């Protein structure tokens, strides 16, 4: 039966013959639905490309100083906390020495 060899568009309720297969999703589509499908994929691709460009632009706009700022802030905080711990230990040992001297 020749009718069995005829392929129809995979879009529900479409009775048009297959014109092409989408390389993206392997759907058999008629010309109308293939064009709609291409537009949809192109729109999604454009959105993704815009996001990539935005991230790239943001990365390119940052200076080396801005990129290095966080590690220097972390080092400064570490230094401050270390000084504080040293000061606490110093005061603790001073009190211990005072107790020994007073005995």
What descriptive keywords fit this protein?
103 residues
What can you tell me about this protein's structure?
- It is rod-shaped and about 110 Å long.
- The mean pLDDT is 90.
- The longest helix has 39 residues.
- Helices cover 68% and strands 4% of the residues.
- It starts with 19 loop residues before the first strand and ends with a helix.
- The protein is mostly helical and 103 residues long.
- A hairpin with a 6-residue loop joins strand 1 and strand 2.
- The protein has 2 domains: 61 residues, no CATH class; 40 residues.
Tell me, rounded to a whole number, the average pLDDT.
90
Shape: rod-shaped
Supply Rg.
Answer: 35 Å
Number of continuous helical runs? 2
**Low-pLDDT ranges:** none
Strand content: under 5%
């Amino acid at each position: 039966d020749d009718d069995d060899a005829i392929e129809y568009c995979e879009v529900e309720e479409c009775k048009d013959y297959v014109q092409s297969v989408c390389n993206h999703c392997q759907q058999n589509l008629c010309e109308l639905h293939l064009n709609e499908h291409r537009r949809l994929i192109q729109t999604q691709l454009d959105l993704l490309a815009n996001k990539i460009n935005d991230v790239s632009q943001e990365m390119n706009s940052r200076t080396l100083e801005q990129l290095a700022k966080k590690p220097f802030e972390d080092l400064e905080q570490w230094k401050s906390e270390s000084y504080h711990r040293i000061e606490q230990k110093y005061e603790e040992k001073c009190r211990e020495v005072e107790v020994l001297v007073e005995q």
